[in-house]
Amino acid sequence: MSGTDTVERLRQFLREVSPQARLLLIGELERCVLRGEDIAGADLVLQELRRVMREQRDGPPRIASSARLFFKPLEPFLVDDVGNHTHPGRIARSSLETLWTWVRRDLLPVDAKILSDDIGSALLVNDEAKAKLITRQFQDRAAAAFDTHFGTAASDERARRRLLAQVGTQRPDEDSTALRCVLQGRDRLADLGERLPLRIGNLANGQLDECKMLIEAVEDADRELFLYALLTVRDRLAAPWQLVRLGTKAAGSDTAARVAETRYRVTVSIVLADLERMVRELRDELHSGRGIAVAALLKTIHDSARGLRTELDLPIGSTWGRALGAIRTNIADLLRTEIESMPGRVRTLLRPRPSDEIRPNSVLDPDAVSEIGTLVEFVVACRQFANELAVSEMTQRTFAELQQNLDYDMPALLDGVRHAGAADRGFRQSQVDAAVRLCTKVFGKDYAALMGKAAEVAGGWERKAG
Question: 0.70 cut: is pTM over it?
Answer without folding.
Answer: yes
